[in-house]
Write a structure and sequence with these properties.
The protein is an alpha/beta fold and about 300 residues long. It is built from 12 helices and 12 strands. It folds into 2 domains: about 160 residues, Glycogen Phosphorylase B (Rossmann fold), CATH 3.40.50.2000; about 130 residues, 3-Layer(aba) Sandwich (Rossmann fold).
């Protein structure tokens, strides 16, 4: 069987949860001993430093415009030319003009589970992708039972085509030696167990202002000098809200950090705090536990399945 995977999201220079999911997936497939062929498709040239397996065949386009245009106008003919039997999208973005059997991964439905944080025009692309997946996909991968249940609320007929496959965690997330840890933390002006850590895109649904307020109220019950550190790419949280967070005494926003630095920050944290209004999975919690950090998380959404009774 010839299996195609859309790896266009790996062209992002700053990889976060979904990009890492895609990279770990193709890395694992590259280590398989199988008679199946795996073909990777991207709308543009990828940086070879990200470490794609040489055992998988990479097909790169030269798209200079919108990714969606490449997906509809160029990808279908390429799938046919390479005689692809099954095509997988890690982000629920399937080419409508292709007759190849399709599989889509759905990570979360924020517009349904937490409509106050994603609605109106911002939700339209996500609704459209799921609508086509419901019509054109042979199978749907949900990353949690919570996500599967959310899908079933919108498209009950998809239940028989939806399978839950939770995220794993990269082996890179592990405890690191104390000397290396101290050196890494010093670059951010931090000391081990002297800060709380919150990881994730800086979005409204992450409840970051509420966490900062709780931190202010609890600060006198924490060890002297404890900080609250936010790590993540800039999302839909307004610049005014970010400015307010940065003005709070003891709060530090590092924005995006490379994965090696993130692992160090998780190793050194007093705890990881994850107060999001909703998560389809909540990968940072799993990564933090792999690094030995305790986790406090909101008891809602898919993250409950990740943390369990930990």
């Amino acid at each position: 069987m010839r299996i195609g995977i859309d790896v266009s999201i790996l062209s992002e220079s700053e990889r976060t949860g979904v990009e890492n999911y895609c990279l770990e997936l193709v890395g694992a497939l590259g280590r398989l001993k199988t008679e199946h062929e795996f073909h990777l498709f991207s709308h543009r040239t990828l940086n070879r430093k990200i470490g794609l397996p040489e055992t998988l065949k990479l097909h790169e386009g030269r798209a200079s415009g919108k990714l969606a245009v490449w997906r509809e106008l160029h990808l279908p003919s390429r799938l046919e030319r390479e005689r692809i039997n099954v095509f997988h999208s890690p982000v629920t973005a399937l080419p409508m003009r292709s007759n190849v059997k399709k599989v889509a991964t759905v990570h979360e439905l924020t517009w349904l589970s937490a409509p106050g944080y994603q609605s109106g025009l911002s939700a339209l692309p996500h609704r459209a992708r799921l609508a086509y997946a419901a019509y054109g996909a042979s199978a749907i991968i949900a990353v949690s039972s919570d996500t599967r249940n959310s899908i079933a609320k919108v498209y009950p007929d998809l239940a028989g085509r939806t399978v839950v496959i939770p995220h794993g965690v990269s082996e890179d997330f592990r405890r690191i030696p104390e000397r290396e840890l101290a050196r890494q933390l010093a670059r951010y002006g931090l000391r081990e167990t002297a800060y709380l850590l919150c990881v994730g895109r800086l979005d409204k649904k992450k409840n970051l202002p509420a966490l900062a307020e709780a931190f202010q109220q609890a600060r006198y019950d924490l060890p002297v000098g404890t900080q609250l550190v936010f790590v993540g790419k800039k999302g839909d949280l307004s610049q005014r809200d970010l400015w307010r967070l940065e003005k709070i005494d003891g709060v530090q926003i590092t924005y995006y950090v490379p994965q090696a630095d993130l692992i160090a920050l998780m190793n050194g944290a007093l705890m990881l705090v994850h107060p999001a209004a909703h998560e389809g999975f909540g990968l940072p919690a799993l990564e933090a536990m792999a690094c030995g950090a305790p986790v406090i998380a909101a008891r809602r959404g898919g993250i409950v399945e990740v943390t369990g009774d930990a």
